[in-house]
Design goal:
This protein is an alpha+beta fold. 27% of the residues lie in helices and 36% in strands. The chain has a 15-stranded mixed beta sheet that branches. A hairpin with a 2-residue loop joins strand 8 and strand 9. Helix 2 packs parallel to helix 3 and helix 6 packs across helix 7. The chain is globular.
């Protein structure tokens, strides 16, 4: 389907994403959408659930522009799946990993101005204990790092997760994970399990670099036994997506993933804590319409 141009549009804004980044960009972004020919309604949402409900009530094939972070984008996608609206992701958070991985401009105004270069594609929607997500669901060391990153008052932008990772190094003790992918189970001592759809998180970590957002599969990447220096090297390599060849990194694909651990751990999806282990992850193939670059590396 070709790019969307003109007509009715809804701009949903998360006022808390990126420490207020969405609100700061609201006026310019709204004007860019109006300049592009849209009759625009703007809503500063009250919660994730509010965002989902508004997207659910949108007119089929109308544009829903989403100015917020990755978790907010997943919440809107869940509603758009039911309404049939077309989602335009705009970078209004801290990491903006889904926007980055899809290949959209990080400046929301430029993203709107480039609408004629975008096409409508149907993307998969991940479910983590029924919670919708687009990028990565993760449990383990990186989840602890996310907790530290989310709780800090430092304004570090995409480096917030690097800060969290350093803090988490000091606290982590090896855990035994049990992971089942489409019924095939394995257990191992290690550091993390990440289940990618778009496959990027943490402000640029390409933890599942081969993931495609429209292939009906989840990419499962696990980091097994390693020294602290080995873990650090893995994360550094993941910025380039070159870590899959390591001996202590395993990779597989499937549509149903179950994760458990020998110690209590939280599961995160797109930076939001959504469950405690054990947990079930599934994928809804090509469930949501998105505006993306035709040559996006996140597409099959």
């Amino acid at each position: 389907m070709s790019a969307v141009s003109g007509g009715n549009a809804l701009l949903l804004v998360n006022p808390t994403s990126g420490r207020g980044r969405g609100l700061r960009l609201l006026t310019r972004t709204a004007q860019a959408l109006r300049d592009a020919g849209f009759s625009l309604d703007v809503s500063v949402t009250a919660s994730m659930a509010d965002a989902t409900e508004q997207a659910r009530a949108a007119v089929p094939d109308s544009l829903v522009a989403v100015l917020g972070g990755d978790g907010f984008l997943g919440a809107v996608a869940a509603g758009a799946r039911e309404s049939g609206a077309i989602v335009l992701p705009l970078a209004g958070g801290r990491g903006n990993d889904t926007v980055r991985r899809l290949g959209l401009a990080l400046d929301p105004v430029k993203a709107v101005q480039n609408l004629d270069r975008l096409v409508v594609r149907e993307l998969d929607l991940g479910l983590a204990n029924s919670h919708p997500y687009l990028g990565v669901a993760n449990a383990g060391f990186d989840g602890v790092a996310t907790e530290y990153g989310n709780n800090t008052r430092l304004n570090l932008g995409p480096f917030i997760y690097l800060y969290g990772g350093i803090r988490a190094f000091l606290d982590w003790r090896n855990v035994t994970f049990t992971v089942s992918v489409d019924g095939k189970e394995s257990s191992f001592p290690g550091w993390l399990v990440a289940v990618g759809n778009v496959g990027q998180y943490g402000g640029g970590l390409r933890i599942a670099p081969l993931a495609k957002a429209d292939d009906g599969q989840l990419d499962v990447v696990s980091l097994g036994r390693a020294t602290i220096l080995g873990v650090a090297a893995t994360f550094l390599r993941s910025y380039r997506g070159s870590h899959l060849g390591q001996r202590n990194v395993s990779f597989t694909r499937g549509s149903v993933v179950r994760i458990n651990a020998s110690k209590p751990l939280n599961l995160y999806a797109d930076g939001e804590m959504v469950a405690t282990l054990p947990t079930l992850l599934e994928v809804l193939p090509r469930a949501v319409k998105f505006l993306v670059p035709a040559d996006s590396q996140a597409l099959a």
